[in-house]
Hints:
Layout: E1 3-7, H1 12-23, E2 27-32, E3 45-48, H2 54-60, E4 67-70, H3 78-81, H4 87-108, E5 112-118, H5 148-167, E6 170-176, E7 179-180, H6 193-203, E8 209-213, E9 219-220, E10 223-224, H7 225-237, E11 244-246, E12 252-253, H8 254-265, E13 270-274, H9 288-294, H10 302-324
Parallel strand pairs: 1-2, 1-4, 2-3, 4-5, 5-6, 6-11, 7-10, 8-13
Antiparallel strand pairs: 9-12
Amino acid sequence: MKKALVCGGGGFIGGHLVSRLKEEGYWVRSVDLKENEFGNDKSDEFIISDLRDPKVVQDVVTEDLDEVYQLAADMGGAGFVFTGDNDSDIMHNSALCNLNVLEEIRKKRVKKVFYSSSACMYPEYNQMDPDNPKCSEDSAYPAAPDSEYGWEKLFSERLYLTYARNHGIEVRIARFHNIFGPLGTWDGGREKAPAALCRKVAQIEDGGTIEVWGDGKQTRSFLLVDECVEGVRRLMESNFSEPVNIGSEEMISINDFAKMIIDISGKTVSIKNIEGPRGVMGRNSDNRLIKEKLGWEPQMTLRESIEITYRWILEQVEKQKLISV
């Protein structure tokens, strides 16, 4: 039986990854600052602790581990990342987690580690045209991310690659593109665009209006979490050691994305565009490299994926209403 450590196992993607590893027969230890808020935790051992503390990392990274999955980070949606108010926490906390985990992996001679990077590390200057963003893996340099979150991800990619070169650790790095789905944060300020839009539509009465940040012409692609986890597992089983995109190539404007969710809801809802953090004007996964190296690409359409997510968030909204009555 293989043994894995999932750092950030109490989070959205981490919880889904733990479930997948258990399905494959792994023994799994998870560590996070908090338990999964939706109970999505099938770990054999779950430790509530802080990876910023090297003493904690000494305890959770053990010599008997076959793999480590490092997803722990201080992060959130546009309302958290792009205001500038959280920049020092984002950089300090996430970098500390990576520094501590990697050094302990080196000391304990764990063979393989996965690091979850982000499409936010791509240069802003290649993402100004909403219709033609450039996010191929080889476009990362000259570096110019649009947020400190992106800069930290880029630094940490390089950190992992240096440990691969200098210490022989097998490193796998994925640049995630807007992962969403059930059992994820859907309110409170750290939720991302798919969850926020689903929540707004689910909460609004028929004939109402929802607010969308920016002019709504900014474009993105979105990937269901199950597809993301499939990509991660295929990457870990492969021999490819360079950063690779895990995302969808089905690009859509934010206004059109909102309209899709409204259509799924069956309601008549209008959109009001307002000032707010929006990030780059265009971002879309370029999947040529992952197709070439792994022979894989996501299978589900955006509409199929968002239907699943909207139904789940609608359930959460209805539960919240019952509690507040």
